């Protein structure tokens, strides 16, 4: 997959001797803490867990709207 600039992050087998779960990324740090192990219910597949780290940005949303009430009115011409 290196030819396509992708890195496979699951290196352990997930069912018997085969690696059936694929987890690719194209940039280091996008996915982390990959863990293979444990079963979900009666399945014979191993679970694959991973984290997607992210930064929470909290701030003030600045949305600009036009206030048409403050707009200048067109001059009205008197007939007569």
What is the helix fraction of residues, given as a range? under 10%
Weakly predicted, low-confidence segments: none
Strand order of the largest sheet: 1-2
Strand segment count: 4
Q: Give me the secondary-structure category.
A: mainly beta
Percentage of residues in DSSP E strands: 15-25%
Q: What does the main sheet amount to?
A: 2 strands, antiparallel
Order of helices and strands: EEEE
First CA to last CA: what distance?
A: 83 Å
* Number of helical regions: 0
- Looking at how many chains there are and whether they match, the oligomeric state comes to single chain
Q: Calculate Rg over CA atoms.
A: 28 Å
Shape: elongated
Mean pLDDT: 76
Account of the 3D structure:
- The chain has a domain at 1-55.
- 0% of the residues lie in helices and 22% in strands.
- The N and C termini lie far apart (83 Å).
- The chain has strands at 7-8, 24-25, 32-39, 46-51.
- The protein has a two-stranded antiparallel ribbon with strand order 1-2. Strands 3-4 form a two-stranded antiparallel ribbon.
- It is elongated.
- It has 80 residues and is an all-beta fold.
Topology record:
Elements (H helix, E strand, L loop, with lengths): L6 E2 L15 E2 L6 E8 L6 E6 L29
Antiparallel strand pairs: 1-2, 3-4
